[in-house]
Amino acid sequence: MANEPDHLLLQRYHVAREQGRDEDAARIWERLAENNFDRITQICRAFRYTGGTGLPPTETGSAATEAYLRVVAMGRSFREREVGQFRAAVYRTVHNACLDYGRKELRHQRRAAGSLDDRYEPDGEAGPYDAALARYEAGRRTEVREALEDEARRRQAEGLARWGIAQVRNDNYRAVLELTHLEKLDAAAIAERLGISLDNVYQRRRRGLTQLEKILRAPRS
Amino acid sequence: MPPDPDRILSDFIDAWNAGRRPDADDYVGRAGEPDRAPLASDIVAFLAFAPTPEYDDAALEAIRAEPAVVAGAAATHAPGGLWPSLLPQLRGRAALSTGELAAALVGALGLSRDSEAKTRDYLDRLEAGALEPRGLSGRLLDGLARLLAVPRSVLDGAAAFGAAPAPALFRAEGPRADELRDDLDVLADALAAPAGGGWDEVDELFRGGDR
Q1: Does ipTM top 0.85?
Q2: Of A93, B60, B72, B169, which is least surrounded by CB within 10 A?
């Protein structure tokens, strides 16, 4: 039996908490964390400081373990209701765990090559996607109808990513991102659907992701 | 000649979406040296908001067998919550033994020097899952957060996962029930109160909660 989708788990987690079923909520959160184990681990592996270096290979596994446990701990009081918000919180937690693990290495690099751009306040709550989340929320609030029906909930489940992709101005990049993120088509299927070469898909995917990243990290305006 | 990094990224995305659990190190390693850091950043950018794949049974089983996942699952049911997994992890990162952490706590919280052994004993019990996390005081959590360089919210989350103790069942009726109820009230008050002469500031830190 396949894993239950994140948006349903998040919904059930909140229902359990609202009904005071804390043990159920903890178990549901456990499933949600499991679903995201690979995301956490692979972000740690691909994590790079501004200078381009990653975590020392000997530290990656420990960083991923700590990041995972921190995500489990988030389940005590997670308030956000959308998967996009959950993913932004996971990213922030993993990023901070990686920074913490690299601290010894960072100190060494600072001494060797001057300052690094990454800053981290241990108790800080700010994340790189906070501004995008705020703009997305503001946009949602202006909508006349609240999405209460199940189908609307399903469509909104990937809300933040969907919202970000819709902001990508280049039609070609946007089309490839939609098919990649929302329909999960592989490169060959996208090439066939859009009538373009595989090389074009590769290029548009990467450029589209770069634009999406800029949109989601853009400072509040 | 190494493959085009755009193609490597695309291959990673396809493998991820198909639930094949791709290894980022492997894909980054396929690129030429100058392309590796930008490719790694692109992979992170994708993973931050990538859809969660639909894993098959074998993949889910493998994920659930990962030590971190096993530790997280145990925390949901164990009285010690996340502490037995998280504290050694955080100590390891800070390169502190339990004894060194105890000594640092004593210094940071201004405890008397002779309380170091007792503090260490409490830390050992916390790691062994033999201490009720709800008893940890805010002052202790603040001190640990500072010494272990971790947000206080993480420690708050770790403390909350311990399973609540099973409630005692009380079955009696009539006048006998009233007598017993009075006795139980006295007992409950006695259990909730700090112990007499042996109770000190270290007990207060580890078992006093937020009183």
Answers
A1: no
A2: B169
**3-state class (DSSP) for residue A54:** strand
Length of chain B: 211
Burial class (CB in 10 A: 0-12, 13-18, 19+), B179: exposed
Chain B residues with CB under 8 Å of A5 CB are 52
Structure tokens at A113: 């090559």
* A210 Cβ under 8 Å from any chain B Cβ: yes
Both structure tokens of A4: 């239950």
Buried b (16+ CB within 10 A) or exposed e, A141-153: eeeeeeeeeeeeb
- Look at the block and give the residue holding tokens 């995972």: A68
**Interface probe, candidates A4, A10, A76, chain B, greatest B C-beta count within 10 A:** A76
For residue A14, count other CB atoms closer than 10 A to its CB. 16
**Chain B closest CA to A197's CA: distance in Å?**
12
Q: Which residues contact A109 (CB under 8 A, 6 or more apart)?
A: A49, A51, A53, A116
Q: Which residues pair with A54 in a beta bridge?
A: A48
Res A119 pLDDT > 90: no
Q: Quick check: B49 and A17 in contact, CB under 8 A?
A: no
Percent of the residues in chain B that have a pLDDT greater than 70, as a whole number: 82
**Min Cα–Cα distance to chain A from B152, Å:** 7
Domains with residue ranges and CATH for chain B: 5-61 (no CATH), 68-164+203-207 (1.10.260)
Contact B161 A34 (CB under 8 A): no
User: For chains A and B, what is the number of CB pairs under 8 angstroms?
Assistant: 199
Tokens of A174: 């946007």
What class is the A128-221 domain? mainly alpha
A68 within 8 A of B63, measured Cβ to Cβ: no
pLDDT digits (tens, 9 = 90+) for B23-77: 999 999 999 999 999 999 999 999 999 999 999 999 999 999 999 999 889 887 7
